[in-house]
Amino acid sequence: MRVRFIRTAGLAFLFLSITAVSAQNGPVYQVVVAIDPVAIDVAITDPQGRSVNDLSRDDFLVYEDGEPQELQSAEVIGMPYSILLLVDRSPRDARSDWPRFVVRSVDLFLKNLRGPDRLAVAGFDDRVSVLVDWRPSRNGIVQRVMLRKSDRHTRFFEAVGWASEEMDLSSVGGTQAQPLIHGRRGVIVFTDGRDFDMYPKYVTANGQTVPDPFYEVPPSVEMRFEQSRERLQSRSVPFYFVAVDTDKQLSEKSPLAKLDGWVKFLKEVRTRMEGLAESSGGVAAFPKRIEDLLPLYDKIQRDLGTGYQLKYTSRRPADGKVRRVEVRVRDTKLRVYQSSTNYYPH
Predict the structure, then answer these.
(1) What percentage of the chain has pLDDT greater than the value 90?
(2) Is-contact 331 45, C-beta < 8 A?
(3) pTM above 0.85, yes or no
(4) Overall fold of domain 2-20+80-302
């Protein structure tokens, strides 16, 4: 897969050349038992939405039409997942490496997508624009996306809220052209995390205009942050932040590093991204080089794209008829996500 920008007349076109094979079918509520053993694919998460990949056969309970079944095996496998890429379009300094860094970062991630995985892409400033609607990865599809250079203010927390709602909606519906995947879902946000209302005020000190050295986050921003944090905490969708231009990435040689107010502002921005990531079960990364993202992308693959294949031989003979199958785990705090080509909507 390849992603590249072509710049013309102040516009940027993002080309996604998505290569893969086929898409999975819908939710796992019923199964046609035509062969033995029956195979079921499930993903398991803890209360924080983090993937649990160290369970054994004895940790699972399988019921067919309410009757317990004897499980033969539980093997860790790769599973399809749905990922939303949310890209910050806020104005950048002309010397910023941000656009090129984003393109390379997205390209690096897309190379790891598999055929059944679904993705969507959206950009945000003071509003969110869908650039690529939900679609499975397949051979022969090239998606052209236009990213207009934005001069609008950034409403960061509202964009995060929109993404959370979008992930709720992505678990509903599904068509033959755009099949629904009932595996894990996640969001990657490429951003500097700077909500417009969060910027420091400037004051005059020693004859110079500088960011307020006694900077504090405005109460209105703190309230919006808490609302976003509580929303993410109540879901089971991890948010992964690829953050740039934070205090962790500020060079000691930069003139901005000498401005206490600016450094405090960057720190507050960074800690709020970390807070949102932690509340959702995700993480925040602060790369200085493109290679620094490899551990994050590996983690996303493990978190979202790993599950179990359970196999059992039904207590009743295979007859090609639909039966209701339920998978549970003995630890009632854990959550089960089901996804398999053997399953069809209830």
Answers:
(1) 40
(2) no
(3) no
(4) Rossmann fold (3.40.50)
